[in-house]
Amino acid sequence: MNNNDILRRLRYALEISDSAMIAIFALSERTITQAELLDLLKKEEDPGFVECGDAVLDRFLDGFITLKRGKRESGGPLPPKQKTRFSNNTVLKKLRVALELKDDDLHEIARLGGMEMSKSEMTALFRKEGQKNFKECGDQFLRNFLKGLAIKYRD
User: Fold this and answer.
1) What is the extent of the structural domain holding 117?
2) Number of other residues whose CB lies within 10 A of the CB of residue 154
């Protein structure tokens, strides 16, 4: 899945307005204009389409976590981000944190999206890359998970 599609699907699933999306970006110290946002939300075939890079989607998800959970109260500034591969697993992890999803919630959302998974299959998606039982999150699973998220939060 490309990042623009993920951003569009999250916006739809969680019913986030344009102004709220701009505010979410601002929470992660990323300034974005209305026009820039609309270009990110366009489909590839639309004129004016701008590709959403990993850093942009990462900032949005960080801002979403801050919106839902509040600012960190560690007292100091955040340490610089380590260069890690941005993947579908990262998107799932950040959504899990932001929405405070427990195992049962994750299974319900996956089921609503048409995916049945065992507990061990689900936890493998949240393991650190390189661990023995780590499982790569495929595009189809993320697509169905976002569909389940829309069913859960829009109904």
Assistant:
1) 88-154
2) 10
